[in-house]
Amino acid sequence: MSLPHRVALAPLTRCRTAADRVPSDLHALYYAQRASAAITISEATQISPMGIGYPGTPGLHTESQVQGWKRVADAVHACGGRLFIQLWHVGRVSHPTWLDGETPVSSSAVALRGETRLANGTLVPAVAPRALALDEIPLITRDYVTAARNAMLAGADGVEIHAANGYLIDQFLRDGVNHRRDAYGGSATNRLRFLREVTEGVVDECGSARVGVRLSPTNRFNQIWDSNPHELFTLAAQTLDAFDLAYLHILEGVAGSMSAPAEGCTPVAPSMRKAFRGTVMINGGYDAQTGDAAVRGGLADLVAYGIPFIANPDLPLRYRLGAPITPPNQATWYAQGANGYTDYAPMMHAEPSLANG
Ligand code: PHB
After folding, report:
1. How many domains does the structure of the chain reveal?
2. 2 in a domain, yes or no?
3. Residue 13 has pLDDT above 60, yes or no
């Protein structure tokens, strides 16, 4: 896949789907508006009903969801872009109200501390997940593979395996949550097993050139942490290197940004870059200058931008021209409908037309 430049759209949860969690024409317009990204990475998308943890997030496990994503892929392609759909299972970051009363699953029965927000807005105490039984793990791997197949059926150019930010795969990777004593816990190699199996399955399904993996070695989002992120994530990069992936996506932000390494952690991305010989994408608080410096300095080949793309659908053009960057309105990040979603104007060119789907 050859790309026009190095500015990717980072995955951004926007919570705009209806109860069926099907991407709509509004989603197609939103992504088409951002199709000038080198890669347009979708918001996190559930692989199965048990993977749900938030209101309004899309899925990729029903026929109508596949049709919804097909509209998105067609719209992105009509604007000359490339769509990767991010495959997501939240694991313990859920609540029985999202799961028809079932208990969320994780690597271990370690609960989030504090409260979680229900669909109706009420805050309730987080619920302890149950540890997946050994024979359930291949079923979840299969759900990732099925969702990847669905992404291909929808006409996406690829999938990104979401192994970051304290969601299910990360709950296996990091020893702050993974307390298992079987083949999926203990050593870094064992904790990497689930990611390796998911990657293997998805690569077999789609072909390695259509698969990216996202990791966040040093953030503590969703109360995740590891006692030795350098060892774990350098080994993760080495392990993934064997798959000849489309890219490795590393969320480790610049100092001072919300995804900067947690206190006491030094950046791991440089040693991951050395361990992974393929294309590396970096993400987290970059702007045009710091992103440029990261590429020139050899840390990454691509830079993903999330927040800057919200209010600047034509961000690559603005960066190229050194044009002003519009600040987003944080109050509408997770609002309803077009408000703060598809109503940010591009600088120059006309709105993408979706008249023919
Ligand atoms: C979120 O919905 O808040 C969210 C989803 C995926 C992420 C991070 C945050 O990786």
Report:
1. 1
2. no
3. yes
Q: Report if residue 203 sits inside a domain.
A: yes
Residue 21, in any domain of the structure: yes
Pocket test for ligand 1, best of 160, 165, 214 (most atoms within 8 A of CB): 165
CATH code: domain of residue 28: 3.20.20.70
DSSP characters for 221-264? Answer: GGG---S-HHHHHHHHHHHHHTT--SEEEEE-PPTTSTTSPPTT
For residues 112-143, one letter each, b for 16 or more C-beta atoms within 10 angstroms of the residue's C-beta and e for the rest, the string is beeebeeeeeeeeebbebebbeeeebeebbeb
Q: Mean pLDDT in the chain? A: 96
The answer to whether 328 touches 310, Cβ cutoff 8 Å, is: yes
100: domain range?
7-355
How many C-beta atoms surround the C-beta of residue 327 within 10 A?
Answer: 11
The response to whether residue 165 sits with its C-beta less than 6 Å from ligand 1 reads: yes
pTM above 0.85, yes or no: yes
Q: How high is the pLDDT of residue 119? A: 78
What's the 224 CA to ligand 1 centre distance in angstroms? 13
